[in-house]
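Hey,

Quick one before I head out. I ran the complex with zinc ion overnight. Inputs first:
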Amino acid sequence: MGLDRKERALVGHLEGRQGLMEAELAALVAQNSFTPNREGVNAVGDHIQAELQKLGFRVAELVTGGVGRTLVARRAGDPTHRLLLLGHLDTVHPPTSSFNSFVGGPAGVELATGPGVADMKGGLVVVLEALRALAAASELDGRQVSIVFNADEETGSASSADLIRAEAQDAELCLCFEAGRMAADGKTTFVTERKGFGRMKLVATGRAAHAGVDPAEGASAVLELAHKIPELHALADPALGTTVNVGLFRGGTTANTVPEEAMLELDYRFPDEDTQLELEDALFRLSAKNFVKGEGGKARVTTVLKEHVKRPAMKSSEASERMSARLVKWGADLGLPLVPESRGGSSDAAFAADLGCPTICGLGAVGGAFHTDQEWIQRRSLVDRSRLLALTMYRFFRL
Ligand SMILES: [Zn+2]
């Protein structure tokens, strides 16, 4: 089908913008926004907020919690084509990391690296740039668009999940700008399904004692959790697509003290609600099970579930499958071969999909090595993905 004259002008506008997009991305990357770095996250939000205001968005709410602010921006218009765009301002890279800047290089170098380039400051730049192109073509006038860029995606979106749900409630389409990936035959991916995720923090409390003088007086919290760990891992079932990982384990004070306190944090994943409920049930039961016992089998260490955050699995629907097929066609019209994928990592798109809103994720820059200090993007994908978003919005508003 190709592009008509107006569409050609719209996406053509983006062709010369790669240098500007990279400069904007470099500035966002240079500003550390590790989730606990509240000031840093807010500084990234300040830039985005100012840019959205220039484009006629009202930044309707700024929510301050223990983490940085979540931006909720809206533009009023045609209520029959309500569009929601999702992204996050935070990254997993601490300010102390030596991996702290955007490295692009001369034209012709295919990849750029930097903390958050793919996950997902590249996606934020893609959104801003597509919106600028649409605004320049007067294509945002009369269009209803909501944007939620939250501050705590990487820790499970505890402060922002309800805001996302509220905006998704009556959206006709939700697009999320986590990174796409490279696939075979020069194709790149977007995401239609994701596993759900949960994180639990367990804190065990026993009784301290001198390890040499009165060991029997003590009750080891470290020993209690150490017993639990292999059993927690054993709850994962590859055949069902579930995983469990105890990623953090700490306890005790000195080698000659029976440890009174210990904690662990675990991450679990599941492909759908049935496996989720079953796995959570098993996790709760095992957390409550006692291993360190005294006389008469009495439990001597108590374990408490201190924190629990989770996101549902993102399942495709008939409506999201239709949108996915359109995106593949629309990508082809731009010369961008696209392929939908189902991915293990979870994202906030799941909150929208869970409410029945047709949802597509993975529309940000194309990259990889997420959450490592080799995180990279394909530089050209900044322009390509903003062309794709501009065309997608243009055509969505006319459906
Ligand atoms: Zn992300």
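The two ends are 16 Å apart (CA to CA).

Talk tomorrow,
K.
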